[in-house]
Design goal:
The chain has about 280 residues and is α+β, with helices and mostly antiparallel strands. The protein has 2 domains: about 1-160, Jelly Rolls, CATH 2.60.120; about 170-275, Arc Repressor Mutant, subunit A. The protein has helices at about 100-105, 120-135, 140-160, 170-185, 190-200, 205-215, 220-235, 240-250, 255-265, 270-275, and strands at about 1-5, 20-25, 30-35, 45-50, 50-55, 60-65, 70, 80, 90-95, 115, 160. Strand 5 and strand 6 form a beta hairpin. Helix 4 (about 170-185) crosses helix 6 (about 205-215). The longest helix is centred in the last third of the chain and has 19 residues, at about 220-235.
């Protein structure tokens, strides 16, 4: 479910702030937002009122729950999304104003987008009133719109404190938990999107987090798993052909298997089998 009320932007207006859009999302596990740097011209505040979601900052995913929030400045890269297991309900407002940048910067809101609210209800009440004004009158009463938007911002400033503790450890732990399953299924085609979904993060962040957890890329890890399985089979299955081992470990052609094995082990599969066949 969602509600999204958009208003026209007014260039050269005489007010401190005005809303560009306001609304909420609820029970939408597919809610994912990625905005590149230098593409979004408004400020935005998002507040989680139920469920769970994630915000990525400098390559780390932070889990957010009821009462947590984030504030983006214009032109910032934005990456946030709902948990698939516990879809969030999130209220938001996009707003603009020429004096907002120094106003919010002086109060330290530029340091990190992550915040948490000491009390949620005052901000929700202000959001309800602004949402109702936009529904009933759209942009007809501009001074009232500006006043209600400032009330919402002021409540956010009053109620919010920095959410300084990183919540990326939960996502990192999910990566560690996936490693045995990834190793067990290493012979299957590697689909990045599938594993990122299992970890409940984006593909972009999955790769960053995976490197942090293992010191290698996901594809390198899968190749290492395949090499380990191939070496074990070469030793334990002397009657198996190299072609059979290649297929069993996930390689469609024996020539590509030879190439990867030589790159990683410095010898061919048959040379490896011969060299270590009589080792104790």
């Amino acid at each position: 479910m969602r509600k999204h009320l958009a208003l026209p932007m007014w260039n050269g207006h005489p007010y401190l702030c005005l809303p560009e859009s306001v609304g909420w999302y609820s029970d939408m596990p597919e809610h994912v937002v990625y905005r590149d740097k230098n593409t979004w011209v408004s400020f935005s505040i998002h507040v989680v009122v139920a469920g769970k979601g994630y915000l990525e900052v400098n390559g780390e995913a932070h889990s957010l729950q009821r009462g947590d929030a984030f504030l983006y400045f214009p032109m910032q890269e934005q990456r946030y999304y709902s948990s698939r297991e516990e879809p969030w309900s999130v209220r938001w407002v996009h707003f603009y104003g020429n004096e907002l940048h120094p106003f919010l910067t002086e109060r330290g809101f530029h340091v990190s987008p992550l915040r948490t609210l000491k009390q949620l209800k005052p901000w929700e009440d202000a959001h309800d009133v602004l949402l109702r004004e936009c529904e009933e009158h759209n942009f007809i009463h501009v001074p009232r719109l500006s006043g209600l938007t400032y009330w919402l911002i002021a409540e956010f400033i009053h109620q919010s404190t920095p959410l300084t503790a990183s919540k990326s450890t939960e996502a990192l732990e999910r990566i560690h938990q996936l490693l045995p399953e990834m190793r067990r299924r290493s012979a299957e085609p590697f689909v990045l999107e599938q594993w990122a979904e299992e970890a409940q993060v984006s593909t972009y962040y999955f790769c960053k987090l995976f490197r942090k957890a293992t010191q290698m890329t996901p594809s390198t890890f899968m190749t290492m798993c395949r090499m380990q399985s191939a070496k074990q089979l070469l030793l334990e299955k002397p009657d198996w052909s190299v072609n059979r081992i290649a297929v069993h470990t996930g390689y469609a052609t024996v020539s590509y298997f030879h190439k990867k094995f030589l790159e990683h082990e410095g010898m061919t599969p048959l040379e490896f089998r011969k060299l270590f066949r009589n080792d104790g």
